Amino acid sequence: MTEDSDQPEYATPSKAYLRRRLQRMDPYAFEAFVGDVWEHLGWHTRVVGEPGDRGIDVIAVNGEKKQLIQAKRYGPNTTVGSPEVQQYASLRLQEENVDQVTIVTTGEFSRQAQELAPDLDVILVDGDGLLDILSEIEAFEVFVKHFDDIHLK
C-alpha cells in the first residue's frame, strides 16, 4: 500500500516479460486469464473454452450487452490471419443477442486480418493491446492470480 492511498502498489515486470509469460500459458489457463481481464473491465464472464466449444472461449455480459471472446494463446512470432477472423466472426450466429465478437491473442494480427475485422464487426486485441488494457485499468492483480511468482510490491 502506498502512504497516500489504500490502493496496492505493484512491482510490474516489463511488458516483454509479461507477454512472454502469457505466450507460455496453458491455452485453457489463458482463457481464464482473459475472462478475469474482462471481469476487471466490468463484465460478468463465463469461461466455456474446452474441446468442442465451437470457438467460444469466454462469454462476457455487461447489462444488456453480450460479447463472445475467442482467446488464442500463441507463442512468439505467430500471427492470426484473416481466415481466423472470418471464422470467428460467425460466432455471433451460435448465441442469441450477441453484440460483439472479440479475438484476443498473445501474438499479433496480420495486416489482412486488421483490415477485415472492422468490416465483420470483430474487435482484435493483440498481445501488446492486452497488456495495455491491463496497464490502463491497473489490473496487475490478474497476473498475481495466475502466476505464483509475480507478486505485489
Write up this protein.
The protein is an alpha/beta fold. Helix content is 37%, strand content 20%. A hairpin with a 2-residue loop joins strand 2 and strand 3. Helix 3 runs parallel beside helix 4. The model has no long low-confidence stretch (mean pLDDT 86).
The gist of it:
With 153 residues, this protein is of the alpha/beta class. The protein has helices at 15-23, 27-40, 82-89, 111-120, 127-136, 141-146, and strands at residues 44-47, 58-62, 65-72, 79-80, 100-105, 108-109, 122-125. The strands form two sheets. It has a five-stranded mixed β-sheet, with helices on both faces. A two-stranded parallel ribbon has the order 4-6.
Topology of helices and strands:
Blueprint: H1 15-23, H2 27-40, E1 44-47, E2 58-62, E3 65-72, E4 79-80, H3 82-89, E5 100-105, E6 108-109, H4 111-120, E7 122-125, H5 127-136, H6 141-146
Parallel strand pairs: 3-5, 4-6, 5-7
Antiparallel strand pairs: 1-2, 2-3
Helix pairs in contact: 3-4
Oligomer state of the chains in this structure: single chain
Helical proportion? Answer: 25-40%
* Gyration radius over CA: 16 Å
Strand content: 15-25%
Total count of helical runs of at least 4 residues: 6
Main sheet attributes: strand count, strand direction, barrel closure: 5 strands, mixed
Give the termini separation: 8 Å
Q: Outline, from the CA principal axes?
A: globular
